[in-house]
Design brief:
Strand order of the largest sheet of chain B: 3-2-1-4-5-7-6
Strand content of chain B: 15-25%
Shape of chain A: globular
Strand content of chain A: under 5%
Helix content of chain A: 55-70%
Oligomer: heterodimer
Number of helices of chain A: 4
Structural class of chain A: mainly alpha
Distance between the termini of chain B: 42 Å
Distance between the termini of chain A: 8 Å
Chain lengths: 76, 311
């Protein structure tokens, strides 16, 4: 799942050099602002064929949080 | 130009600096966005930013704290609307005016927060600042002498106040369909120090008496129209042969009461021109901290300013 997040993030943010870990936060990546966060989440939803609840999205603080949420939603 | 956080910025833009520091003091998460926003200014922003901030601080009065909260409210609300927009093939949630009335306009507390938050975006969202500057520098000064002026949907009164304070203006008037909005505009104009209070009339533009003006303003209204063609037809009928129309309309800008959209600025320009107008000047301002090229490519919010005459 981490690799999926990274692939989608590179595509959405338009930056193939992005490397993420579970501890990566929006503060670590210049392109990761609120607008790109929306685009990232929607792209991941489309990639994984899921829909994340807004309340859960608002609570995300790191890539690790996002990974856990996606895995819970996909059953992985 | 040294950006926000430097002594040069606080000296050159003291009111802007005060407002921005107030927001960051209460909501530290906003610091990164606003530091980037004010890291560089276009020339028209440099010339006008402090004037617009001064207008805002007069309108805010003693309620700055509430306005800061309402700015965050509008940011969060916009994020929710963006999720809907991006998940649903870039479609706005509503398409019927009656739905906007029921869900938005009839909810007074919501509307109060919405309008307060929008006011603060005029300096913190660069696209809004640029549209104000476009109106102030490219529209009003180039109207004919003693122009008859009408604004439909004056809102906070910022644009209307500039016309009222223009020595070159003749009769100045404004229409709105909401009695509450009319009262709000009246108080706003007084707060802005306008001595010559214009005629503020309760009018539904779609059932208005014939009128002719030389300077017609339709700012952040077209995106709320269920029938934009009909709206533009009414504007056509109001404009004198020498008259000029100012339209500010955002694209790809999801909001609780936005109904009408086009995918690109060119499509919006073409649409307006298809309704009997010739656009003589335009300005496209992308959302804050994005280039126009990137905003077009990714179908992000772009504020479109048009100055038009009758064909």
């Amino acid at each position: 799942m981490l690799e999926t997040i990274q692939t989608v993030m590179r595509d959405v943010f338009g930056d193939d050099s992005i490397v993420i870990t579970k501890d990566t936060t929006a503060d670590d990546i210049d392109e990761w602002d609120s607008m790109n966060n929306v685009r990232l989440i929607v792209a991941l939803e489309q990639e994984l064929n899921i829909r994340l609840p807004l309340k859960e999205i608002n609570g995300l603080k790191s890539v690790g949080d996002l990974q856990r949420l996606l895995e819970a939603q996909t059953g992985n | 130009m040294s950006g926000f956080g430097t002594s040069e910025f606080s000296t050159k833009y003291p009111v802007t600096n005060k407002l921005t520091e107030s927001l960051i003091g209460k909501y530290p998460d906003q610091k990164s966005f606003l530091t980037r926003r004010f890291s560089s200014l276009e020339p028209e922003e440099e010339r006008n930013l402090e004037y617009f901030s001064d207008q805002i601080i007069r309108l805010v009065g003693d309620d700055l704290d509430q306005f800061l909260d309402d700015y965050i409210f509008i940011c969060n609300m916009q994020t929710e609307e963006e999720f809907y927009f991006r998940r649903n093939n870039n479609q706005y949630r509503l398409s019927k005016f009656q739905d906007a009335v029921e869900q938005v306009y009839s909810n007074k507390p919501f509307m109060a927060s919405y309008m307060n938050g929008l006011l603060m975006t005029q300096i913190w969202w660069s696209n809004h600042t640029k549209m104000l500057a476009f109106y102030k520098e490219e529209f009003l000064p180039k109207n004919i002498a003693s122009y008859r002026h009408l604004e439909i949907g004056p809102g906070h009164g910022k644009l209307l106040s500039m016309a009222c304070q223009d020595e070159r203006a003749g009769e100045v008037a404004a229409w709105d369909i909401s009695p509450a909005s009319i009262e709000s505009t009246k108080h706003a104009l007084q707060a802005l120090g306008v001595k010559r209070i214009p005629e503020l009339k309760l009018v539904d533009m779609f059932s208005s008496e014939p009128t002719t003006v030389d300077s017609l303003v339709f700012s952040e209204v077209l995106e709320h129209m269920e029938n934009p063609e009909e709206a533009l037809s009414v504007l056509q009928s109001c404009l004198s042969d020498e008259g000029r129309l100012f339209i500010h309309v955002p694209i790809n800008s999801p909001a609780p009461d936005h109904l009408f959209n086009k995918a690109t600025p060119t499509e919006m320009k073409d649409f307006i021109e298809s309704q009997g107008f010739e656009i003589t000047d335009y300005k496209y301002a992308p959302l804050t901290n994005y280039s126009l090229e990137r905003a077009i490519e990714q179908e992000l919010t772009i504020s479109c300013g048009f100055i038009a005459v009758k064909k």
